Amino acid sequence: MVRLSRAETQERNRAKVLAAARDEFAGRGFRDAKIDVIAERAELTRGAVYSNFPGKRALYFAVLAELAERPALSPHTEPGKNPESALGALARAWVAALPLDDEQAGLGRDLMPEVLADERIRRPFAQLVKLNGLLLGLALERLDPPDRPPGAPIPRRVRLAETVLTTLHGAGQLAAVAPGVVEPFDVVSACERLAGLPLNDWWAPPVIAPAAQAADRAWSPPEAVDLVRAESFVPADGVVVVLGTHRLSAAEEAVRASGRDVTVVVVTSEPDELVPLTRLIVAEVCGGVRQAFPERAWPGVRVVCDVAGTLAAAAGVLAVSDETEAAIRVERGRIVATADGRGAGHAVSADVSRVEYR
What we know:
By secondary structure, the chain is an alpha/beta fold. It is built from 14 helices and 8 strands. It has helices spanning 6-32, 35-42, 46-52, 56-69, 83-96, 102-105, 111-117, 119-141, 158-177, 184-194, 251-258, 271-292, 310-314, 344-348; strands spanning 213-218, 224-226, 231-233, 238-244, 262-267, 302-305, 325-331, 334-340.
């Protein structure tokens, strides 16, 4: 019999806890689920459960994140070729995952009550939804109608994306509390028609932004997992913006100003709950985008959950919190500009000639 290493044993126990918790939450709901029962299902001690997850809510978010990140075994749709067909494909993928009866609804039914019950969760959740609106909006912008005149500016599509997500989230919540009420075909049709809705969408740069500082030091980041594309990568040249979970909406400042690759590094002072919540919320939309949009339209932004703060440290951000906002610009493998504070991503995206020297 092969003896498992300590790390392998921990990974196996974590997987057993997640599987047991998934069954317990699905059967009894979050509120009535018991850690003792989860431990018994996993054939582990109560202490072993808590050594992997410090609380029941952290375990609940981890279960939902694991399910959301699973690749679709049988895609329900083909990628769309324009905004209307892509939104229809996204809606079909979304409604295909809606619960059809009370038993299926049990697992995710308590997510929104938990979000609403605690400001420490609600604020990051709101910012994550804003980040998803940006990611979906960027994908829609890459599928702008072919009849757009050559050279005409690509219109911003973030408000459209947020309206679509409002429709899909509303359908999801109604399906969770009243399975069978939501008519999937109507939801898909509504999202398709939203593509033609005229919205006065525009983006304003930050009124106040810090001055970027010139730098010249090596950029040696660790490998990370991009939540948008569900793949490992090593951040290279471009803009890296480090954002706490209360500041995620600032990602658009870096995206609009840079015109180059942007990596959003999500940091938090409460990783046990907010890291799996981040994985869950981003996966809900980006998993659908990967099905519903051709690869050429996937947003160029990469999103990383920096659990241990190692990527932030490589960028020179040694202390992180949910209010963190800092950024660097990398060129030819070296950090050439840094900024800290509100508007940091916008600041480092400026031309080199505008960067201030210390």
